[in-house]
Amino acid sequence: MKPQLHVGPAVFERLAPDWNTLVQESITNTPFQRLAYQQSWWQHLGPGNLYTVSVRDENDGLVGIGSFYLIDETLYFNGCVEETDYLDLIATPEHAETVWEIVLDCLNSGDLPQWNTLDLCNVPDASPTRDILPRLAQSRGFHFSTEVHEVCPIIPLSETFDDYLAGLDKKQRHEVRRKMRRAAEAGLEIQTIGREDHIVTAVNNFLVLLEKSHPDKAEWLNEERVAHFHQIAAAGQADDTLQLMFAVMEGRQAAALFNYDYNGRVWVYNSGFDPEAFSHLSAGVILTAKAIEKAIENGRTAFDFLRGDETYKYRFGAEDTTVHRIVLERKS
Fold first, then answer.
1. How far apart are CA 152 and CA 125, in angstroms?
2. Number of domains in the chain
């Protein structure tokens, strides 16, 4: 195996030809490992200094990427923590342990400034990283700790929308059907942004709804996050992974979902709604229900609400999965 340490953001262009191919074969294959997301997050939100270890096999095939930023003597995954729901080493399952060994050795080689802690956020419950790192920490003299960081409620999707509804609580099933029927009678429409639509305008409209939906979201949406939304949306539109949907009534956008449609599931990255626009029609509920229906029609296997335990997710039948924080600290 041939490791290489890359310092700074030039690594994204350097590894671009092979990056997403590796992600598709990786132990964790989500939109957040893909090149466009990783590059955009670093460009607009990354602090400190970026250090990336790439690993190639004897045939020069890319088999591993570990990308981290260093701040205050602590290394974090690129993307950690607020904006990115799943993070992990990018490596094929058969090479994951070897790549982690090489990454840790490279990070410890003296080519980086002093660091004392490797603090990894949002590692999925099913990731082999959770089994690999305790062993490697012990053999390398690190103190190891881990904890559940947050929940990610997910709906395992049925073969038909009727089957999905049948699996809901009786009261919730009745409510969804009633609200969908009332919205259809009122003329509420669902619009999905396509490849020919003007993505800048669509994202701006989405961000208006995001800000209106809650004061905390309005405060959270700073200039850097606006730029990040625009960049990942444009990339998602270009590679058909973006699903940007609006609930529209009488020409007015009442609610929106910013989703990824990738790797057999829909990932709900963020949402927004106008509390003063046709609130009696429950546009946000209708939009979510229609997004689930569309996912089923398209043969997707899961509808992932990503991090957060908001009540509405469970009303739609979501079940908790977990993401974990893993910390390796040098022993004093």
1. 10
2. 2
252-262 and 62-71 strand pairing: unpaired
What does the DSSP assignment read for 206-239?
A: HHHHHHHH-HHHHHH--HHHHHHHHHHHHHHHHT
Element (H, E) at 12: helix 10-14
> Is the bond preceding residue 53 a cis peptide, omega within 30 degrees?
no
Query: Is 18 found in the same domain as 55?
Result: yes
Q: What type of residue is 141? A: G
Give how far the C-alpha of residue 89 lies from the chain's centroid of Cα atoms, to the nearest Å: 14
Q: pLDDT digit string (tens) for 236-286?
A: 999 999 999 999 999 999 999 999 999 999 999 999 999 999 999 999 999
For the stretch 70-74, contacts whose Cβ atoms lie closer than 8 Å and that sit 24 or more positions apart, written own/partner, are: 70/112, 70/113, 70/115, 71/47, 72/48, 73/114, 73/115, 73/116, 73/117, 74/115, 74/116, 74/117, 74/118, 74/119
- In this prediction the pTM is 0.97
In the chain, the amino acid numbered 173 is: R
Domain range enclosing 247:
158-300
In angstroms, rounded to a whole number, what is the distance separating the alpha carbons of residues 65 and 53?
Answer: 6
Q: What is the DSSP string of 61-104?
A: -EEEEEEEEEETTEEEETTTTTT-S----EE-GGGHHHHHHHHH
In whole angstroms, what is the distance from residue 212 CA to residue 119 CA?
34
Q: Hey, how many other C-beta atoms are within 10 angstroms of the C-beta on 230?
A: 17
Has residue 308 been placed in a domain? Answer: no
Per-residue DSSP letter, 263: T
Q: Is the pLDDT of residue 332 over 90?
A: no
Has residue 115 been placed in a domain? yes
